[in-house]
Amino acid sequence: MALESLMESIAADIADATKTLFETMILMDLKYDDAILVDDTQIRTDVIGMVSFTGRYHGVIALFCSKKFALKIASTMLMTELTEFTNEVKDAIGEVSNMIAGNVKTKLAAQHGDMHLSIPMVIAGEGLSVTAVNNHSAVADTTLSCFSKDPWLMTPFISNNEMFNIGLLLRESTK
Amino acid sequence: MPKVLIIDDSAVMRKMIQRIIQQSGFLIDEFVEAGDGKEGLEKAASSNIDLILCDWNMPNMTGIDFVKALRGSGLKSNIPVVMITTESSETRIEEAKNSGANGYLTKPFTPDQLKTKLGNYLLVK
């Protein structure tokens, strides 16, 4: 399967997994649109929840959202109103990213062999951007890398009048 | 009344599971928490645990390695273990069963699905 087709297929799996997650555990309404390719210069966000994966294909699945939306998600999961951006909020975003990536992994592994997921990583700030310089991979740990020239395949979601995105970077692994 | 050990590297998930169990009306004496399989083994050995709920993917020691170590230890080897994980393939479910897990629930789950699963091990007030 061509990489572009596979990415579109994974984006559809991401949308399904996110919808199921919001219907079962987060209990917030959710709508989404078609995935589009987004250059890294277009990404501005407060919170990033990332899970990288390795196997026949490797890449990153990342949730991009505002602090306000991260607080809403964490408050719903903990069934309590959170107003401060604490480590619990980061933990909640990490777990949400992990559940989405985990469900996508199961579908991907059924077609392309066993895969390994990293432990989720959450980064929070204001107006964060994502890039890697000079077309070299920026290695954050042994499994996570961002490819500066590769656009993200980004699925836009809307819930409770808040927009958030889930992006995908994918490459075929060298044998 | 039973003591329940919840092993998950996400503190939010541990709290969420506790809240659902409490709201479901199960008779619980105490919740004990662990952030990975290694800490889970220590807590299982030092407390009188009646039921273990365990994630799969965790740092230091995974949930499946925890189950294998617990069942292989001889001590506490009869405590029921329910895996609660994003690993949802048939291969993983089979591996968990063969390693000694008694039940399996995939994330994400609804409160009702958790309640039904735990109804096999806990009594309602």
UniProtKB/TrEMBL annotation, chain A:
Occurrences of domain Chemotaxis phosphatase CheX-like (ranges): 47-138
A Pfam family assignment: CheX
SUPFAM superfamilies given in the database record: CheC-like
Database matches in InterPro entries: CheC-like_sf, CheX-like, CheX-like_dom
GO BP, sorted A to Z: chemotaxis
Superkingdom, taxonomy of origin: Bacteria
Keywords: Chemotaxis
Keyword presence, Transport: no
Name the record gives this protein: Chemotaxis phosphatase CheX-like domain-containing protein
Native source species: Candidatus Brocadia sapporoensis
From TrEMBL, chain B:
Alphabetical list of Pfam families matching this protein: Response_reg
Coiled coil: none
4-aspartylphosphate: modified positions: D55
Signal peptide segment: none
SUPFAM superfamilies: CheY-like (SSF52172)
Domain Response regulatory intervals: 3-122
Record GO biological process: phosphorelay signal transduction system
Superkingdom, taxonomy of origin: Bacteria
This protein's UniProt keywords: Phosphoprotein
Protein name per the record: Two-component system response regulator
Organism listed in the record: Candidatus Brocadia sapporoensis
